[in-house]
Amino acid sequence: MRTDSDARDSVWRSPSAIIGGVIVALMAVLAVVGPLIWGATAERVDAAAILQGSSAAHPLGTDNLGRDLLARVLVAGRYSLSLALVATLIGAALGILLGALPSVLPRRAARFVTGAVHALVAFPGLLLAMFTAVVAGLGARGAVLGIGVAIAPGFARLTQTLAASVAGSDYVAAARMLGVPRRRVLTRHILPNIAEPLILNLAQSLGGALLGLAGMSFLGLGVQPPDFDWGRLLFDGFARIYVDPEVALGPAAAVALAGIGFNLLGDTLARAAARSSAGRHQTDRPGPPPAEDEPDQDAVLEVRDLTVSFPGGSTPVRGLSLTLAPGEIVGLVGESGSGKSLTAAAIGGLVPYPGAVTYARLRLAGADVADLTDKELGTALAMVFQDPMASLNPALRVGGQLAEVAVVHQGASRADARRRAVDRLGHVRLPDPERHAGQHPHELSGGMRQRAVIAMGLMGTPRVVIADEPTTALDVTVQRQILRLLREVVTETGAALLFISHDIAVVGELCDRVVVMYAGRVVEELPADRLAAGAAHPYTRALIASLPDLDTDRSRPLAGIPGTQPAPARVGPGCAFAPRCVLATARCHGERPELVVHGPRQRVACWEVTP
Amino acid sequence: MTDLRTDAPTARPDRSPGGTAARRALRTAARRVLRFAVSLAVLLVASFAMIHLIPGDPVRASLGPAAPAELVATRTAALGLDRPLPEQFFTYLGNVLTGDLGTSFLTGEPVADVIAARLPNTLSLALLATAVALVVAVPLGMWAAVRTENGRNRGTELAFGTVTGTAVAVPEFLYSIALVAVLAVGLGWFPPAGQAGPATYVLPVLALSVGPIAMIARITRVETLRELGSDYVRLARAKRLPAARLHLRHVLPNTLTATLTVGGLLLTSLIAGSVLVEYVFAWPGLGMKIVESITQKDYPVAQAVILVYGAIVLVVNLAVDLVLGALDPTSEIKEVAA
Amino acid sequence: MRIERLTVRYGGFTAVDDVTLDLPDGHVVGLVGESGSGKSSLARAVSGLVPYTGRVVGAPRVQMVFQDPYASLDPRMTVGETVGEGIAKRRRATEVPRLLGLVHLPAELAGRYPRELSGGQRQRVAIARALGGDPGLLVADEITGSLDVSVQGAVLNLVRGLRDELGLSMLFISHNLAVVRYVADTIAVMHHGRVVEHGPAEQVVGEPAHDYTRALLEAVPRLRG
User: Fold this and answer.
1) Is residue A18 situated within a structural domain?
2) What's chain B's average pLDDT?
């Protein structure tokens, strides 16, 4: 697995980062050495060469005193950058002060300051800068103050948001309860956690300040002669643009380059700060050979040797096989990181790029998935996800989302499709289906939404329903209703249900058969009614033992499993559970047990159970 | 990590399904109008204060050190600047509310007339540029998102990021200058300055919309990527909906809120950006006027133009808020979350 | 200790409605309810994190452990700094290892950052930090809600051990009735901001008096066979 620092490095190696970095570095060098090298040339008056266009001696031409414009552009870098720096610092200081104020002021005053900042942020910076420049007077001082004032609201807002989010965090609440003084909470928790984004914003604001100052000077509202920055040079050059366009070119290019450099660098900084540790490079991985034996004709879903891998050696699902008969409810149970949800996604063809899915066989309703058309797949396979809030499109009416399947795949008219949608909603016992079909998802409660999602799956003729933690986000009483509904759906349609959950009690109650996953592999498969008494794999047994129920003996400690499940990239050659297993031997660590038959309808992968 | 099981103490009292949605929308709208009114009041005070914040005597500053003392005194009296501050403020307030924005120091024209003549030119420029930006940027951003989802097509992602990143970083006055130098002076395809007929609109609108196009395209891409990763899109994909339907019917409406918010805010920054563009193209709009008035120390004009600009910004923001509120009943929740 | 007529309002919404609840010394009081029942608001009110009306009598130095151990530890502080936060400087060197020992964590962990720990370890650190405040009452709000089952058991054992060994009084909140039954001496059931039933754990589970409690009990999933 690639680490955080790798990902950060790759951000810094991107072309935009390099270009940005190089430009900003050049600007910094120019600011230091520019006036030292070209200072004299830039001030040398030459009466013989007044207002010239570009020539060999003066590539960018000369100004009204015959001074070389190229030298002046190179010299002006220092002044332009210093003014921008000063303006940024003023803006940051002002903004951070304004942003921190609400946390020390009384409630009413704090609200006023917050409101004022909110209003000021919406104001274009240039207007604020002009206002300030009018008051502070024309010239560099007014412009710098103006741009500083223009930058301040953004900083204030950022400071407020950041401070509010840190101040509202649980760890600050914990510190308060421990009696940690206010000042210490500020220095110990709040400041360190908001410093990084603020510094980031400082870097980004520098580019904005530079452009703003250039704009002010270009309008004649900023730097005044005899001083000159890039904006002022542009102001002078622009007056001659109809005659010698090239004299405006030098300062314009300098401003543009600086703007681009700071912006690219700022983007890079922001991305480096936000980067997750996702790997990048695709590795080719040969799939398993196609299964040689005959496909199981009784199965409605048959998965053989399913593997999901991600670049960088992470393989969250490893050689998983699974068979579902019509009308069967199979529970796929495992803890977070066991690969159960990716298994569901792989069967549904929904594994996100760059994940790679391989299998020896994947058959749905008697045909290879690869041979099925979208229409067949879209109607034969229904999926239900964990969060019913996110599973429905917030912008569309519930009825329309259901009707869609019938319109797209079954060629139904809109009216017919809608009638069917209302019928299906009634079928999942959504009260008043006609009315709810016309509503948006946010008008429905969580349980009602999950019913609507299930109804959506019933728009077609589902042969397999895959439900990925469909009740985890729901209260227990609602969970009970949804479980009952799922069972009814299976009984009525004859579809098979693959029910994925972390909760072995729910699985045990609902399902006919249970498949237990650990670290990407199936470790045990058994009938659900044998879970309590007949589980054989040490992991399954420990999982059941660590789950308290209403009859658990309160006088005895609960079982737990020491250690943690290995990350998908860190699974060793032996049994993945061996490091946490009380029964593990040297063989378990070195050699992986296969899933073998152990009693009626039960299979286990464990050396200690089936040596 | 969000927890969906426990009761969050921030639970909104009226998030119960159905029922109070209309009332809630109305209350939100009322709150926004109130916020607008308060901001407007602050703006009025600020524009009034502007003249008084100028160090020294603004009339003296405007007329120059050589002007005779009597002239300064009569001008000051004519402007009412010798009255007590509260009285001046209420006079100012009354005048503004009746449409009297004062008279120019330099030309003696009523400022309201000047603004009435020039405002339409500025607005037409800004609105055209916003329209162009939205029409170009939204499809561009969506296309880029679909092509680069989950890190596919690294090349496209890089090119898109670099090009838009560069385009955003170059200010509109540089585009203006480049366009004038190349397309007007160099090639002579378009008039370099002034306002006379459709051809004169091309370059200013172009200069004004390049940055916003890049900006909106970037935001549209990010928003689209986020929606593409959501469960309802996964579900739509599991239903095997055609790509066009998935993107246009499911994803697009959900990205519009953010896009339009930014578009609305960009309109206000476009109005500010138009100051510089107008200056380059000698466009007879408010922007030219404000630059002139500030350099010439014509304070009543500067004061009034800033007031008008500020009011436009507030009105646009209010309109964006209200439209979004009507379009998307959950926008306030998003706003809180943002 | 006793919560008397406690009410929490957010705007026009009453999250906790006139709740009175006894918290006997050295007991674990379990609080169950579904989302929106007001149990988390009650926890935050007792901990002084949200304004309320009514009284919390005789509960000195309330400390709280939160649900999400990823959000409740400052990412920029080491385990040792976090655990030692409420402790006088001179006692920190001896207290931090003792507190880590109480939650069965090795003392070497003091130098690590939260991102290097597993969810279960983080939750132990949060408990150790709360113990450092020498709590008269410990409020545990869904502390196993974001843990895997195999880790949950150990944390629940720890909670029970702390009560037995230190005589710690606790308000233990969860949506999971089986979890609450396992750790609590008495159980209070919350519904729509009110406590609808409160009694000894076995009695509430075995002979529920309120319809809502019965509905909750029936909904608890059980293994068959």
Assistant:
1) yes
2) 81
Query: Nearest 5°: CA angle at C185, between C183 and C190?
Result: 85
The Cα–Cα gap between A160 and A169 comes to 14
Does C119 lie at the interface with B, CB-CB under 8 angstroms?
A: no
Which of B239, B305, B331 should one mutate to test binding to chain A, selecting the residue with the greatest count of A CBs within 10 A?
B239
Q: What percent of chain B has pLDDT over 70?
A: 90
Q: Quote the CA–CA distance of C163 and C190 in Å, as a whole number.
A: 23
Q: What are residue A357's DSSP bridge partners? A: A308
3-state secondary structure A80-138: HHHHHHHHHHHHHHHHHHHHHHHHCCCHHHHHHHHHHHHHHHCCCHHHHHHHHHHHHCC
Question: Which pLDDT score, from 0 to 100, does residue B86 have?
Answer: 86
Please name which of A187, A99, A90 lies closest in space to residue A144, comparing C-alpha atoms: A90
Q: What is the pLDDT of residues C17-29, one digit of tens each?
A: 999 999 999 999 9
Enclosing domain of residue C190: 26-51+136-225
Tens digits of per-residue pLDDT, C48-88? 989 999 999 988 889 999 998 888 999 889 999 999 988 88
Report whether pLDDT(B16) > 80: no
Domain interval for residue A568 = 301-547+559-604
Which has the closest alpha carbon to A344: A221, A467, A478? A467
Lowest mean pLDDT among A321-325, A453-457, B103-107, C170-174: B103-107
As for how many domains chain A has, the answer is 2
Query: With an 8 Å Cβ cutoff, is C75 touching chain B?
Result: no
pLDDT reported for residue B328: 62
Helix B172-179 × helix B199-228 angle, to 10°: 140
| Residue C126 is assigned to a structural domain of this protein | yes
pLDDT tens-digit readout, B74-101:
878 877 778 888 888 888 888 888 888 8
Taking 3-state DSSP, the helix, strand and coil percentages for chain C, each rounded to the nearest 5, stand at: 40, 25, 35
Cα–Cα distance, B238 to A459 (Å, whole number): 13
- CA-CA-CA-CA torsion sign (A341, A342, A347, A352): positive
Residue in B192, B272, B294 nearest the CB of A221: B294
Name the residue type at position A444.
L
Check if the beta carbon of residue A255 is closer than 8 Å to that of residue A241: no
Classify residue B150 as left (phi > 0), alpha (psi -120 to 50) or beta.
left
A411 touches chain B (CB under 8 A): no
Q: Is A447:A473 a contact under the CB 8 Å cutoff? A: no
Q: How many helices (H) and strands (E) does chain C have?
A: 8, 9
- Does the domain formed by B115-333 have CATH 1.10.3720.10? yes
Looking at the structure, do residues C175 and C209 belong to the same domain, yes or no? Answer: yes
Strand order from edge to edge, sheet including C2-10: C13-22, C2-10, C53-57
Instruction: Report the residue of chain A nearest C138, measured CA to CA.
Output: A177
CB < 8 Å from A in window 251-270 of B: 253-254, 265, 268-269
CATH number at residue A573: 3.40.50.300
Residue A277 pLDDT greater than 60, yes or no? no
d(CA B153, CA B144): 10
Judgement on whether residues A36 and A168 belong to the same structural domain of the protein: yes
For residue C50, the chain B residues in CB contact (below 8 A) are 9
CB contacts under 8 A, A 264-323 vs C, are none
pLDDT digits (tens, 9 = 90+) for B254-300: 888 777 777 777 777 788 788 889 988 888 888 888 888 888 888 88
User: Which residues in A lie closer than 8 A to residue C82 (C-beta atoms)?
Assistant: 171
Q: Which residues of chain C from 38 to 57 reach within 8 Å of chain B, CB to CB?
A: 38-41, 44, 50
- Domains in chain C: how many in total? 2
pTM over the 0.95 mark? no
Rounded to whole angstroms, how far apart are CA atoms A72 and A69? 5
